[in-house]
Structure formats: structure tokens, C-alpha cells
Description:
GO terms for molecular function: DNA-binding transcription factor activity; transcription cis-regulatory region binding; zinc ion binding. This is Ferric uptake regulation protein. Fe cation binds at residue 131. Its cofactor is Zn(2+); Mn(2+); Fe(2+). By secondary structure, this protein is α+β, with helices and mostly antiparallel strands. It folds into 2 domains: 1-86, Winged helix-like DNA-binding domain superfamily/Winged helix DNA-binding domain (Arc Repressor Mutant, subunit A); 93-163, Dna Ligase, domain 1 (2-Layer Sandwich), CATH 3.30.1490.190. The chain has helices at residues 3-13, 20-31, 39-47, 55-67, 114-124, 140-162, and strands at 71-75, 81-85, 95-99, 105-108, 134-137. The strands form 2 sheets. A 3-stranded mixed β-sheet has the order 4-3-5, with no helix packed on it. A hairpin with a 5-residue loop joins strand 1 and strand 2. Helix 2 packs across helix 3 (39-47). The longest helix is centred in the C-terminal third of the chain and has 23 residues, at 140-162. The termini are far apart. The relative contact order is 0.10.
Amino acid sequence: MNELEKIEDKLHEAGFKLTPQRRATIELLLNHHTEHLTAEEIYALLRDKHPDVGLATVYRTLDILTDIQVLNKISFEDGMSRFDLKTDDSGHFHHHLVCSVCGKVQEIHEDLLLDVEKRVDHQFHFAVSDHRLTFLGVCEQCQRKERLARIEGGRHRTSKNIK
């Protein structure tokens, strides 16, 4: 069974139909599953091929898919709600690395917090059902650009001093 069929089954179980507008939205999410799109970005991508899909329909579809646990609604430092398809990773939401320079988001599908969960359970008697972790920092490409800019800046100062 493919991902679209799995989502359609979840919709039916929750009492919803897979309308053409919902299908278009879900297919777009499946095709852009690593991009963490906002509702407005999803709408903009749909608009050309599916002019019958309105922004309100996109919002309602995203709300339904979040409610039936097909999507995670996440917010990074930009304050925008973004949507992330749930995956079958070890039962937990995956983690994110967010570059504060270029905004790139990288996913980590490895569960890094199992020991922390055990400690929370033992020390605070709190049964963790899920967790989310976002690391903020500077990605490798932006670090490389910063190093090159420093090197280039050093060359310009040195060449001016020689004249």
C-alpha cells in the first residue's frame, strides 16, 4: 500500500472523504515531504495546477491531517507554522537542525533522546509519549561561506597594506 492509500484509509477511518482538493494537497505534501512548507507555500504551489483549491481549503485539509496524525504542525524560529509528514521512525517525531543564517532545515531520523526519556520516567515519574528536538545553529554550507569571506577579507586587507 502506498503512502497516499495509507492516508486515504486514515481519512476514511476518521469519517472524511478524499476529495480532489485534499488529494491534490496530500500529493503535493508527499512530493515535497522534506521541505517543511507553510500553508501559504502549499497554496502557492497548488494554485497553478489546481486553481479550484482555495487557501481556506488548504488550511482545513492541513488541520484535518494534523488531527488524524498524518502531519505534524511545527514552528521554527521564524514563527510560521510548518507542516511535516509523519514517518514511521521508531514511533517518535524526528529531530531538526535549523540554520539561523539560510533557514535550511535538516532532519535527523535517529532517536537521540532515549536515555533522556528513561531518566525523565525514573526521576520525575513522567511517562513520555513523544518528544521534539530542534537544534539551532549554522549549517555546514554557511560555515564554509563565512570562512571564505574571512579569508577573502584578509586577502583584501593584506593587498591594500602592500601598496
